[in-house]
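Z., the sequence and structure:
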Amino acid sequence: MSKLNRYNLLPKDLLMIQTNSLSRTPPSIIIRHSFILLILIGILTACTPTTNIQGQISSSEKVNLIKLGQSNKNDVINLLGTPSITSVYGDKVWYYLTQTTETKAFFKPVVIERKIYAIIFNNKNKVINTATYTEKDSVPISLVSRVTPTSGNELTILQQLFANLGRFSGSEADLENK
């Protein structure tokens, strides 16, 4: 004897039992489960890393196309675009900067790749040298926590308030005479 016959259920009745059991689930439980599912989806998508590219995207192939002693500033601009930084003193050097960072959720961005291309020119604006620097070549700089003093009066909050009260009293004629 099959299980269906033992309970005197037909397949149609069995289907009704399954659908009725779902319809008897309280709406608060369905809402709670949906809310939990949405929160889990939100948490998982927040963990997706965000990649950010800053600066000019210059490739080493383009830098290798620069011919020492032959290429001039116009050739470099046509090939790489305008430089990110130019030197003011000493040799005429153009710097092309690019940096790729990755941020996960609320953590600090992590530098994945950093490249600096330096193009050095002579007095005739011809390229005499090129150099490529990466993050490995960088030197950490320690910041100084000292404060530069400024000259002038240090007024308290009350002194500032009372000093301002006198400025706004009087007529326009009095203000024009001052």
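The longest helix spans residues 27-46. The chain has two domains: 3-46, 50-136.

Let me know what you think.
H.
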